[in-house]
Design a protein that fits this description.
- The chain is built from 16 helices and 16 strands.
- The chain is an alpha/beta fold.
- The protein has 3 domains: about 100 residues, no CATH class; about 80 residues, OB fold (Dihydrolipoamide Acetyltransferase, E2P); about 210 residues, P-loop containing nucleotide triphosphate hydrolases (Rossmann fold).
- The strands form 2 sheets. Strands 8, 9, 10, 11, 12, 13, 14, 15 and 16 form a 9-stranded mixed beta sheet that branches. Strands 1, 2, 3, 4, 5, 6 and 7 form a 7-stranded antiparallel beta sheet that branches.
- Helix 2 packs parallel to helix 3.
- It is elongated and about 100 Å long.
């Protein structure tokens, strides 16, 4: 009689379904078998093999014991007795049918196939019910909903940090499959139900990802990669509308817009951090813009001052004693989160103080992330540094001599500049900037 369940069908089935089939067939010890051995047992049971008896059975039992757990063993007594019972029942039916059945062997074979198919369908239905029960059990096991910031590990899996950026006992494990499916990157804020750790697990696990950065996970995952989206030069100027003389000079003489790469440069004590603070205050008042601050390598006093500001607390605050790797990771997380905002059509601004403590590649990578997306939003990066890195669209240079003597504005106009300013302020505005720079150089 041909097997109802084919080997190819069993090999394509998950292990949970195979366990359910083996349980339906009454196979003993199936949970200790490897998948290939379990398939052999199922096929053997389906074919109605009997358990070896006498010395043959004892030899098989001995071999099974020698190979150890997890290897294929002999037929179980339970399944063997079932096969024997089935054979006896068929023999009784043959005896009762007499010679009439012998005259119709083809019809009898078809009847047996029909009974076998029904049994196989019942087995598969039981497997599906078992798999569904496993999913339901996992859902019931899911407890509270967790939300936090993703940190992707080198092996492709991740952790949901509930108290970012530092690890904590409440962190939740995210499988590599979930990371790939949802295209998660470090810095994403995700949420979803959590199940408690099992016996061999240390951390709770995320059952599924419901939200990514405040939006439904399905909608976010369907979007294109940020790096693959077409870009344009910045064309929408960011108006500061401030009374500070330095900010006014920056707005009109070194303009920048949505999607700009801006670096505030100058010697020590030139006023870079204070200028960045003033820019953050001015940009935070703008509607429709998400501004975030990262302190990387800051002085302890500056960190304390920022943390006292309830409206403008830094996203991450690391002192100058932090390693270059730690500072780079903090900046990267902030940039990755802003990328998601821009890819969804929003306008994000990341202000960094400063890039000096990062590795050169990490600093350039942070600046390179800024762009004006042609069919999306924008990511603007404004950072302080002792010197330009190359690739900036706007350089704001500060004059330490002006700062130390209290003169305003402290902008070094000759060393400052904007790439393609006419796209931000028009042709007349660009000519006015060129004229002002020439006058500044003559005075100098």
């Amino acid at each position: 009689m041909a097997a109802v369940l084919e080997r190819s069908e069993l090999e394509a089935s998950p292990l949970a379904d195979l366990h359910a089939i083996a349980d339906q067939m009454g196979l003993d010890g199936f949970r200790r078998l490897r998948k290939a051995d379990l398939i052999d047992r199922i096929l053997a049971g389906q074919a109605g093999e009997q358990e070896p008896t006498g010395d043959e059975g004892r030899d098989e039992e001995k071999a099974t014991s020698t190979r150890g757990r997890g290897r294929r063993g002999g037929r179980s007594r339970r399944s063997g007795s079932r096969a024997s019972a089935g054979a006896e029942a068929e023999a009784e039916a043959d005896d009762e049918g007499g010679g009439e059945e012998e005259d119709e062997p083809g019809e009898e074979r078809r009847a047996k196939r029909t009974r076998a198919r029904r049994g196989g369908a019942a087995t598969r239905a039981g497997a599906r019910d078992s798999a569904g029960a496993d999913e339901d059990a996992e859902e019931r096991d899911a407890g509270a909903v967790a939300e936090g910031v993703v940190e992707v590990l080198g092996n492709g899996s991740a952790f949901l940090r509930v108290e970012p950026p530092e690890p904590s006992d409440g962190d939740v494990y995210i499988s590599a499959a979930q990371v790939r499916r949802c295209e998660l990157v470090s810095g994403d804020r995700v949420g979803g139900p959590v199940r408690t750790p099992r016996r061999s697990e240390r951390y709770p696990s995320l059952v599924r990802i419901d939200t990514i950065n405040g939006e439904a996970a399905d909608a976010v995952s369907a979007g294109a990669r940020y790096e693959d989206l077409p870009v344009d030069y910045p064309s929408e100027r960011l108006a500061l509308e401030a009374s500070d003389p330095t900010l006014q000079a920056i707005e009109w003489l070194t303009p920048f817009g949505l999607g700009s790469r801006v670096v505030i440069v100058g010697a020590a004590r030139a006023g870079k951090s204070e200028t960045l603070r003033a820019l953050l205050y001015a940009l935070s008042a703008r509607d429709g813009v998400e501004a975030s601050l990262v302190l990387a390598g800051a002085r302890p006093e500056e960190i304390g001052r920022w943390q006292q500001d309830e409206q403008h607390k830094p996203l991450v605050a690391l002192g100058f004693a932090a390693s270059a790797d730690s500072q780079g990771q903090a900046v990267e997380r902030a940039i990755d989160a802003a990328k998601r905002v821009a890819a969804r059509g929003g306008d994000a601004i990341v202000l960094i103080d400063s890039l000096d403590g990062l590795h050169l590649h990490a600093a350039r990578k942070a600046l390179a992330a800024a762009r004006n997306l042609r069919e999306g939003g924008s990511l603007t990066v404004i950072a302080t540094a002792s010197r330009p890195f190359g690739g900036e669209s706007t350089v704001i240079a500060l004059d330490v001599a002006l700062t130390s003597t209290g003169r305003q504005p402290i902008l070094d106009l000759a060393a400052s500049g904007t790439l393609r300013p006419e796209l931000l302020v028009g042709e007349d505005g660009a000519l006015a900037i060129t004229k002002a720079r020439a006058e500044a150089m003559e005075v100098g």
